[in-house]
Structures are given as C-alpha cells and as structure tokens.
Amino acid sequence: MALDERGKTREQLALEITTMQQRIDDLELKHIVRNGTERDFKNVERDLRERVKELNCLLSISKLREKPDMSIGETLQGIVDLIPGAWQYPAVTCARVVLTNLERKTANFRETQWKLTRSIVVQGEPVGHLEVCYLSRKPARDIGPFLNEEMSLLEAIAERIEKVFEQDRAEQKAREQQQQMVQLDKMVALGTLVSGVAHEINNPNNFVMLNTPVLREAYTSVVPIIEEYYADNGDFLMGGLPYSDLREKIFSLFDGILEGSRRINSIVRGLKGFARVDPAGYREAVDLNSVVESALVLVRNQITLSTSHFSLELAATLPPVKGNSQRLEQVIMNLVQNACEALPNRRQAVMVRTSSEGDYVVVQVQDEGCGIPADQLPRVMDPFYTSKRSTGGTGLGLSVSVGIVKDHGGTLSLASGIGEGTTATLRLPVLALAEDASEAAS
Length: 442
Hints:
Radius of gyration: 35 Å
CATH class of the largest domain: Alpha Beta
Helix content: 40-55%
Distance between the termini: 52 Å
Largest sheet: 5 strands, mixed
CATH architecture of the largest domain: 2-Layer Sandwich
Order of helices and strands: HHHEEEEHEEHEHHEEHEEHEEH
Mean pLDDT: 80
Low-confidence stretches: 1-6, 32-36, 389-396
Strand content: 15-25%
CATH topology of the largest domain: Heat Shock Protein 90
CATH superfamily of the largest domain: Histidine kinase-like ATPase, C-terminal domain
Strand order of the largest sheet: 8-10-11-13-12
C-alpha cells in the first residue's frame, strides 16, 4: 500500500478520504451479511483506517499551510503536532523537525532507538531533517516497528516541509528586496538633500578658507607697528583683550580658523561623495585606506560622542581593490556605527585598522562593547534581525553590508563574546585577483 501524495490537491485528498471511509463501511456490512473471517476483515479494516489517518494528516497539513499570517515556526509546530495521530501508536509517537537554526518538536519528544528519519533538502541543499520516534518498543513490522506506508508518509510530509521552507525563503527574500528598495529611495532623497546642503555650506566656507590667509598676512604686516606702539605706550586692549595676552595667541587663532575651515571642506567633500550616485555595477581601482578615512569623516561626531579612546591604524601601503568606493564606504560606516552603539560608556575603545594578507586587503573594526551572545551571533547578519528595534533599528544595516561585500567578491565575518567586545573583519580581493575572477566568470 505505497503512499505517493506529492501531486494531489486538498480536494483530491478529501475525496480519497471519503472513498476510503465508504470502503470501510462496505466491508463492515459485507462482514455482517456474509459472516466472513473475522481476522481477515480486521486486517483489511486496520489497513484502511491507517490509510485514512495518513490522508487526514496530509489534508490537515494542507489546511495548515493555507492559514494566513502564520510564521514558519508556527507552521512547523502545527505539522509535528499532527504527525503522532497518523502513526500506528499515537500515544507513544513523537516527532521533531530541525531546519537551519529552527527546531520544532512535540511536547513529549525524546530521541530513541526506534525512529524514522528523512533529510530536508531545498534546491539541492540539505537544510535539516524530520524524525519520528516511538518512545517504547513495539512489534517488528516492515522497517523495525514501522510500516512501509509510514516511511512513505514521512517522505510526503518532508516534501511539504521543503515547500514551506522554500516558500518562506522566497517571501523573506522578497521582503528584503522591498525593504532595500525603500532604503534605496530614502538614500536617493537623502543624497539630493545632502548635495544641496553641502553646496550651501561650501560657498561661505570658501570665503573663510580664502580670506583667512589674507587676513593673517595683513596682520603680519602691521605687527611691527603694533609692537612699536606697545613698547612706547605699554599694554592696551585689542578686541577687548589685553594685547600682552593676545600677541601670543593671535597667530594660533588664525591657524585654528583655517584648520576648522579645512575640516568643513573635508566633510563637504565626503558628503558629496556619499551623495554621488554611481552607475549600477560601477567598478574602479580603490584605495581602501582612503575609503576608511572618508567614512570616518562622516561618522566622526558619533565616534566623539561614543568613546574617548578611538584609534586608527592604517597600513603604510595597501594594494588597490576593485570596487565601488561609495558602497564600500557605506560598509565601513555601518561597522563603525555598530561598534560605537555597542559601547556602554565612553571609557571603552573602538579600533579601526587596515592590513594586507596575501591576496586580500583586510579592514578590522574592533570594539570593547558588551558583545553578542553565542546563540545570536549566527543570526545578526540575517535581514531584519536587530536588537535595537525599540530605538529605530531595522535589522538591514549588516545584511545590506554583507550583500555589498559579497558583490565585491569578499567576506564579512564577526567574532564576539559576552563581555569581550566584537571584531568585524572585512576581506576584499586585491585588484589583480578580482579582475582574474571577473574574467573567469565571463
């Protein structure tokens, strides 16, 4: 009595259950009328009732999948709870399904020597397994204490779980793409705003940058006259301050104005670069040291507010990488922002360093923050996963960064522990290696 339900609709299953029930009723009637052998009748009746249980299980799973707004965890729990009732001995049957980082099982689950197991495979990739166990020894049948039909039923249930998993993965990817499109629209709007603001800031700042050296030179030219007046008449006020104090500081004041103006200019250049929209797939030779420096200019305020112990160690020379400097800058900014947000107070440090390791250029962002629990570490790069949702976190920062890094042929990894801080390591292939990979792919 082989079971192959993989192509049947819910309506076909319901019709087959009705037909089976009618056959049971007919057998009961024939037994009464013809007074057949009681043992033969009970065997046939038992087989048919087992078949009805199996079909009812598959029908219930089909109904379960049609329920709206059920998470994959709720769906899987519903499926494993339906399994015991479809086996020969429901009272001692338990079930468990394990998918990637997700596990669902019946309340009485305990792994025993009497079990059936089937791998869950999606698009050729093993993603978990489904198992059914008996909690006590039962008479030997086809496969240990299990029927061949039960193994076939396990196969059919596993196929339905594979479809559930594949559908959930597709829906999650669609949600991620939608969120990324929303994020992209926001970035485009922000880029337009930033570009306008940068232009408005840049114009008056140019006056400061150009005129300060002129004023310094003009003051320098009159210093002998002022000094002669000071020698003849003693101290006097200049700009509300005693000249004796001001004469030692005025050149440093000019230097401070000019340095501040240069910093403004550097920030404006960074904002313009961040707001620039490059063509899709745009690649160039990129100096990762420059990318890191540009990113740090844009997040300097957050660094200053978060820690009083920030260090930057740039390798003396780095081979160029092939990539999009704007998108790589976005990754560095995200890693540094995450490091700053992990610090409980300003006494803890954040370190950023670059280095070269063989055919790869490496950027490490290390913090002395609270760390990430071991059970959460595998999930922190998943889309929508965040521990900061109450403060506006979307759970997209790291997942988007991972996508950017993969698009550049690199890797992004995290090492962390509670109370030990976190180290994010970005590895990108050097330009020559990246070009060889591109040529091989084409």
